[in-house]
Amino acid sequence: MNPIQGLHHLTVMASDPQKNVDFFTQVLGQRMVKVTVNFDDPGTYHLYYGDETGAPGTIMTYFPWPNAVKGRRGNGEIVAAAYAAPVASQDYWKARLQGFNIPFTEETRFGSPAIKFEDPDGLWIEIIFEEGADVPSFWPNSPVPREHALNGFHSVTGWVAQTAQTESLLTGPLGFTKVGSEQDAEGTRTRYRGQSDGVGLYIDLVERPGKPHGQFSAGSVHHVALRTVDDAEQLEYQKVLSQAGYQVTPVQDRQYFHSIYFRERSGILFEVATDAPGFPADESVDELGKHLKLPAWYESKRAAIEARVKPIVNHEYGVTIGGTSQSSAQGSAASLSDGPRVNGPHQGQPVMTTGRALDEARTAVILVHGRGGSAEDILNLSQQFNLSAFAYVAPQAQGNTWYPESFLAPLERNEPGLSSGLQMIDDIVNTLGEQGIPPENIVLGGFSQGACLTLEYVARNSRRYGGVFAFSGGLIGPEGTPRDYAGDLDGTPIFIGCSDVDSHIPLKRVEDSAEILARHGAKVDKRIYPNMGHTINEDEILAVQKMLQEVSARSV
């Protein structure tokens, strides 16, 4: 297995897609080599910029979320992308940025002059002036002359609390070489080099102990992708990284490359991507970026997708891509509960959110924490699911518990907390409906006590939901509790995962719950894990991730 060559691409969130197009094509002189959609969120563009052919090591990619607020830089993420340019181009680029009224600062990076500025959403873009590899394939229609053209990536900069834990990944399984360190305004900057002579060789880490994590939104880096030669070598990396303790995804077909993903211990999301098949796989080089390209599994939804995405102009061809309709179906705001409204201990407690803003999302996940947990804790599942289509919503229980006794206790002994918690979930479902997200686009899930509350809610409020998942949970109440729930779950996919020796959740209750929910119309995927304990495993995360991907695809 060869060491990682260097950078493949960087994927970032944006807000206004046309401003993004104009900045990269008209200011930086990069070619828009592909217009497609986020395969996990087909109502959102995925825009790719690079050299003439989209060579690995030149590619910046963006997911534009219209009207998204700017994110906040912090630890656990990539905060800057640096291009390389010839040393003699310094004056040209300073004048060019001034001509576009883009402010910049001048710096020195490991002895090389550099300038730093922001893209339209606040991501730091840097140009480092030093001699190195030329751009793999210069775009002849670029507004930037060839002698001053950006030569692809130079490096990316990540902020971390401790360099050592990320360094062990880079210099260990990934095969980077440590170059050296210097002082940065934020802390000690350490550089690592990939093993090739091409472009995009470096990763810089700046150590910032005790500093806060960033807030993900427009201008935030979603992930950084590293280059590997082919599928066989990628599978070797999947094996080696898994053996090193990283949770690595199955191979994802991204049409233009194949990908695996894992999050390192500081919080940075990495991808290992293959060089092939490349961007000319579905368009000739002469027409790269001219059309909205969709994978075969979305072609049947082309009209709906083109109507949903905002129109953008590709200046190379003078063509407009995308439609003008931004309307979406509105869900019912009527309460799903037939009984009177409950006012109990959880009413008035905070509800935390992350991911898509509610007024921009088509889909949502309601996450319900367990006993002793918190809304903030369970929102971390959004990072493990790693799907940007969703608004993630997490209610907070008063005193960090939804009801006082075991979920197997008589129902009256868990009141008023039980009814109050169910009401809180119902309020969130109705609020999402008011925002245009109907129940069939909502996934509800939780862990432990939160899983029990979630299953009880959907059983008492049976209808078609986008999906339901219960990590270590079952329906609430003692043996013999009547289960004559009204309504029909109408094919709702429900995932239930639990250990066979969970000290809190008896196996029989898990099996009984799965059977009852199936009788009420759910499509239940029950998985029992031998000797797992009271926790969540990787197989469960992947199962729910697949459920979420299917909900996102249906929501267009």
Automatic annotation (TrEMBL):
Q: Which UniProt keywords apply?
A: Plasmid
The residue ranges of the VOC domain are 6-130, 152-275
What PROSITE patterns does the record tag this protein with?
VOC
Region ranges (Disordered): 323-347
InterPro entries found in the cross-reference section? AB_hydrolase_fold, Extradiol_RC_dioxygenase, Glyas_Bleomycin-R_OHBP_Dase, Glyas_Fos-R_dOase_dom, PLipase/COase/thioEstase, VOC_core
Record carries keyword Ligase:
no
Q: What top-level branch of life does the organism fall under?
A: Bacteria
One GO molecular-function entry: hydrolase activity
The answer on whether this UniProt entry bears the keyword Flavoprotein reads no
Compositional bias segments (type: Low complexity): 323-337
Which SUPFAM superfamilies does the entry mention? alpha/beta-Hydrolases, Glyoxalase/Bleomycin resistance protein/Dihydroxybiphenyl dioxygenase
Spell out the Pfam families in the cross-references.
Answer: Abhydrolase_2 (PF02230), Glyoxalase (PF00903)
CDD domains with a match to the protein in the record:
PcpA_C_like
The membrane spanning regions, by residue number, are: none
* PANTHER family in the cross-refs: RING-CLEAVING DIOXYGENASE MHQA-RELATED, RING-CLEAVING DIOXYGENASE MHQE-RELATED
What protein name applies here?
Phospholipase
Q: Write down the species.
A: Deinococcus wulumuqiensis
